[in-house]
Amino acid sequence: MQEIQVEYRSMKKILILASAASMVEQFNMHNINLLLEMGVQTDVAANFRKGNTCTDREIDALKTELEEKGVAWHQIDFDRNALNLPACIRAYRQVAALLKENQYAVIHCHSPIGGAVGRAAGHFKGKKVIYTAHGFHFFKGAGIINWLLYFPVEKFLAGFTDILITMNREDFQNAEKFCFKAGKITCFEPVGVNIHKYGAVDGKIKRKLREKYGFHQDDFILIFPGEFNHRKNQDFLIRTLAFLKKSIASVHLVLPGKGKYLEKCRKLAVKHGVWENVHFTGFCPFGELVERYQASDLFVSASRQEGLPKNLKEAMACGLPAAVSDIRGNQDLIVDKKGGFLYAAGNENDYASAVLELYKNTDARYKMGAYNLKRIQKFSTQRAVEKMRAVYRECLF
């Protein structure tokens, strides 16, 4: 097992809880490493069997990594459907039993369902509770159902929360505006991006990467990695590609990822005559994903809802400009007309205008990409770790 320098000595234990194991792999490994460095015994609980956005092989690799670090992992049968009450009750009982058996001092919850179950169990078992909100499901532009369903639950459960971490300005302002009764409400980037693993590439390397993935040098490549679902709204990008193709004959859209809407999007690409211009790459290992960013010209997003999007942070760290929907999360990362364009969500004309302007103006793309490379420093993993160190100190020592 890898030796880790211990900052503190502590007999206290903490549980990292998320509804899906992929959320642990994508958003919590730096937290786990930090806690081990601080001398805190750390366990993980999530659904390792279902609902994950990465492959079974990736999940097996995560289990192995956790075991090598001395971190115990526990299966919780979370369901991604918040209305599946029997599944929620079953998950609650599993978490409550785990808390009782292991005597954790703190539980750190993630995701709406994991956050709801974990905070309720943590409160009734007398544990300190940290909750990271990866984007409230009620937000500006959300449907009335979201506000009726998720808002009262989040407001009520805030009373069971010692520290509520929001990652964008809108969520923080809503938590304060609606008087959420958490012990403490804070706003910062709790995940960050390891900027040393990304970076812009020069023209020579970019050409080689394009050749590797079957593109020509004069192709104009748009990229948007993400799970195929209603929230990510890939169908908007496919529909508008047919219009863009009239002005940019060599335009291509790269869509890494998987999800329940994938087949729908495949059929949509055929329907709109852009099948040869849309590239469904499936789930990409990290190294390949970075290369696909570096081979591209522009990051695009039509998301209806975001917390603080990881894919956009990664694209910025690769020096890409962006044309993204003007919504929470995107607004926190992209400075309009400096790092790209924020267009009115769902407005095809605004989106197409932004893409066409960046296609025609190579200098603007380079300047915006360079701006994003500097700006992403504010959202680095190093900064996130120091913020989380302070949170953990407050709860554990």
- What is the helix fraction of residues, given as a range? 40-55%
Uncertain ranges: none
Mean pLDDT: 95
Spatial order of strands in the largest sheet: 3-2-1-4-5-6-7
The helix/strand class is alpha/beta
What does this structure look like?
The protein is α/β, with parallel strands linked by helices. The strands form two sheets. A seven-stranded parallel beta sheet has the order 3-2-1-4-5-6-7, with helices on both faces. Strands 10-9-8-11-12-13 form a six-stranded parallel beta sheet, sandwiched between helices. It has helices at 21-27, 29-37, 56-68, 85-102, 112-124, 144-158, 169-177, 203-212, 234-247, 262-271, 286-295, 310-317, 330-333, 348-360, 362-375, 381-396; strands at residues 13-20, 41-47, 72-75, 106-110, 128-133, 163-166, 184-187, 220-223, 251-256, 278-282, 298-301, 322-325, 340-343. The protein is built from 16 helices and 13 strands.
